[in-house]
Design brief:
Elements: H1 13-18, E1 30-32, E2 34-40, E3 47-55, E4 58-65, E5 70-75, E6 83-89, E7 99-102, E8 105-110, E9 130-135, E10 143-148, E11 154-155, E12 165-171, E13 179-184, E14 192-197, E15 239-241, E16 244-248, E17 254-258, E18 266-271, E19 285-289, E20 294-298, E21 312-316, E22 324-328, E23 370-374, E24 380-384, E25 392-398, E26 418-423, E27 428-433, E28 438-443
Antiparallel strand pairs: 1-25, 2-28, 3-4, 4-5, 5-6, 7-8, 8-9, 9-10, 11-12, 12-13, 13-14, 15-16, 16-17, 17-18, 19-20, 20-21, 21-22, 23-24, 24-25, 26-27, 27-28
Length: about 450
């Protein structure tokens, strides 16, 4: 399918059968092997990261927010008619971008604004930081039950896969960039740190500018640090598989830790990607799939197509102590009639961003032969990864460019910026955008095998 919807809206396949009306959906999208199920404007609060919960036959989607301080809660039981059921208000002047859930607990990140980026926050004004913990006994009305503070700038993308510990990308005092923190939340009202790890060079003596070595496994000096170590930062989330933690650590690369001793994580492997690929968010995401012997890894390019190359790739992890890159994903090709030769020439950020990552969540589609990547100004890209050394694109969806600027980014012309993708167990694909609402999609293309 290649085209768009009438400005007056459309009826999804589900709603046609029910004889109900659908809210107006933006026109002008383009797609291949992807159909639109629904659109929700999120009450003009653009979403960022998403997670999902199935409870007693009902499905609830939770999103962080870009330009509003808080978190959206939607009932997506009928994917063709998403319904906003709550908005959890967050603290002023604070990033509320990130969410995860497990074991009846939702965790939401709180983070200080950036000093040199137009995100709509004042880095010199008061802010809140850390992680809020919410009880999901009533999924539509989460109840706040705890707050963990780092004592620094807060946390970015955190992981909670159930059990006793949450795993944070934390901006702690006396460190450059985010480090890895393990926090015990057995008592939700009194979270406490029980372990941490950082890349040598991140720690500074209190009040000093020069960093000191970390008391952990030695790391080779070349290639893991940019000038002043500014790009060495754990983006998160840490992904936990057994006693291993997989860390997407910016310019330091992909790092694998042994966390059998929670109090003293130990590095067992590292694979660098910077150079040759760009440094800032050099490794943004890692998604290990041990049963397939691979991990999916990608960067995040914030240079507006002006910096070194971004990448998305597949790593062989059959021996987790010796990960090795075995494939790179092909770059998206602009659609026919586009006025740009590559997406790096198109306004806005380009390159891969988030993937259908939350594999610990039973409501999320397990990784199989289809791989989903939110690709900023190239929209959603879907790949056949049945042959891990030859990923190939089999579907894509490009939202129309927004008609109204709801936040200060992207800089320059206002274009679509697909931020996150989540695929539920039913096959519904949810994507978010910096200046649009929630799209609900379905892949309609060929399957490699079952």
């Amino acid at each position: 399918m290649l085209g768009g919807l009438a400005a007056t809206g459309f009826l999804s396949p589900f709603d046609k059968a029910l004889g109900v009306e659908q809210r107006p959906t933006p026109s002008g999208f383009q797609s291949h092997n992807v159909e639109v199920i629904a659109y929700h404007d999120l009450d003009r609060r653009p979403g960022f990261k998403m997670t999902i919960l199935e409870r007693d036959g009902r499905w609830y989607l939770y999103t962080g927010c870009f330009w509003h301080r808080g978190w959206n809660v939607l009932d997506v039981t009928n994917p063709a008619r998403p319904e906003m059921v709550n908005f959890l208000r967050g603290p002023d002047n604070t990033f509320t971008l990130q969410v995860d859930l497990a074991d009846n607990t939702l965790i939401t990140a709180l983070e200080k604004g950036l000093a040199n980026a137009p995100w709509g926050l004042d880095p010199n004004a008061p802010f809140e930081e850390g992680v809020l913990l919410w009880d999901l006994t009533d999924p539509a009305r989460p109840r706040r039950v705890g707050h963990y503070r780092t004592g620094g700038r807060g946390t970015h993308r955190n992981g909670y896969q159930g059990g006793r510990y949450m795993h944070l990308a934390a901006g702690a005092p006396d460190f450059d960039g985010n480090i890895y923190q393990i926090v015990d939340i057995q008592d939700r009202a009194d979270p406490r740190e029980v372990g941490r790890w950082w890349v040598p060079g991140q720690q500074r003596p209190s009040g000093a500018e020069e960093a000191v070595p970390a008391p952990h496994e030695a790391m080779e000096a070349a290639g893991f640090c940019n000038i002043d170590g500014k790009d060495v930062s754990l983006h998160g989330p840490a992904v936990i598989e057994g006693n291993r933690a997989w860390l997407p650590y910016g310019a330091a690369g992909l790092i694998v830790l042994d966390i059998s001793d929670i109090s003293s994580p130990r590095q067992i492997a590292r694979i660098p990607f910077t150079p040759p690929f760009h440094s800032t968010f050099g490794v943004h995401t890692v998604m290990p799939v041990p049963e397939r012997g691979v991990a999916f890894v990608n960067s995040e390019d914030t240079s507006y197509g002006k910096g070194a190359a971004h990448f998305a790739g597949i790593v062989d992890i059959r021996d987790p102590t010796k990960p090795r890159l075995i494939a790179l994903f092909p770059e998206p090709i602009p659609p026919k009639g586009a006025r740009y030769r590559s997406f790096s020439e198109r306004p806005g950020w380009s390159g891969p961003h988030n993937v259908n990552q939350l594999q610990h969540n039973p409501a999320v589609q397990r990784q199989g032969d289809l791989f989903y990547n939110a690709h900023f100004n190239a929209g959603l890209r879907i790949y056949d990864v049945s042959h891990p050394r030859l990923p190939r694109e089999v579907g894509w969806f490009m939202p129309p460019d927004p008609t109204e600027r709801l936040g200060p980014m992207p800089e320059g012309p206002l274009v679509a910026q697909t931020e996150d993708v989540l695929v539920d167990r039913r096959g519904n694909i949810f994507i978010t955008d910096k200046n649009q609402g929630l799209w609900v999609l379905r892949y309609t293309g060929p399957r490699a095998r079952t």
